[in-house]
Amino acid sequence: MPGRRAGRPGEPRPARAGPRHDLRDRPGVRAEGDRRGHGLSAPARSRHPAVGVREQRRDRPQPGDRGGDPGLGPGIPVRRRGRRLRRPRHRIGRSVDHPAALARGVPPDPGRVPGIREHDPGRTVIRAEREPATRRLALIGAALLAAATLALGAAVAGPADAATAAVSAGKPDKPGKPPGGGGGGSGGGGTTELEYAAVGDSFAAGTGARPYLDTACNRSSLGYPKLLDADANLRLTAFPACTGASTTTVISSQVPAIPTTAKRVTLTAVGNDVGFSTVMQNCFVIVITSSCQSSLATAETLIANGTVAANVAAVVQAIRARAPEAKVVVAGYPLLFNEPSGYTWAARVNVDTAALNDAVAAAAAANGAVFVDVEAAFAGHGIGSRNAWINDWSWLDTTIGFHPNATGYAAYATEIRKVIG
What we know:
This protein is mainly alpha-helical. Among the domains are: 130-159; 160-176 and 193-420, Rossmann fold (3-Layer(aba) Sandwich), CATH 3.40.50.1110. It is 34% helix and 6% strand. The protein has a 5-stranded parallel β-sheet with strand order 2-1-3-4-5, with helices on both faces. Helix 10 runs parallel beside helix 12.
């Protein structure tokens, strides 16, 4: 008969694989599979545990339901129309390494996926436990906080004393060029490289071109002093240049580090004398119109009244007093912005930078130094150009903004090589 279980008359019924939580064997109660005409036998249901779960939805009332039907006997409830019957509670499957599972003789499986509970016959499989969302959010928040802390630490770090921020100057194993290629050697087949020292501010230190050799002065292995050190005729023996240094700092802390036997000294300074960082902050980072105008006016006054020229002259004279045989090369600054620019104050800053370079060039020439103008080399490569050699401001790395990148410092080295000899 359709809907009835297959089997021969008198044949014993097979043992059920799952827990006996359905009432299919009680009089007057049929399984859902029978009602729908599935006609699944007991062995078939053991192979389909999901069907066993569906069998518990009954079309007849079961003990424990509210109400009753006298025709079915005392205690047998009546299923009310439109009312959902409660599902019976299932026994929860346990992991194969659970003590209860071990007691049943189930060996642990070392290759199973952690958090997956194995399926016992007739039991419910529990899915892998997921990491709580609050914990994931906490980990993400901690990572962002750490990144913000590092950025803030880099932003507030001030310039260090160049004498205490020791950095290896030159390569100890760099071969010298053949004899006759220049002075400065000790003779007897020794090295003929010229002793070279680099002093100045962040532009002399190579700030803006990572990686840095130190975090106190942000000296870079890609700055022009290190690039010149790779030349066969130069050996960098002193590299005290440091970010944030003014001409006063150069004289007091960096010039004493120059060897008295140095034959070449490069200098890029005076930008901090006119408030370079203040102008950049007030005019381009956190724009405050009144503060920007005041900072620019102060810088323009220092250039016009001769203060810049006097400061550069004092540094050149201090270097000559320290190393009388040294050739002093003074490098200027590039125009930072490509024009037209999206920055309101870019054009004015470029004009002031050109005036600053003119003052530096005049002071260098008056004191026997050689000036290197890099404005033409950087033309078309300022901030805002398609191929910028100067870094724009970035909150992700506050040390590189408004400084040359590696390509920019390579251009610096190319221009200095033309005159350093």
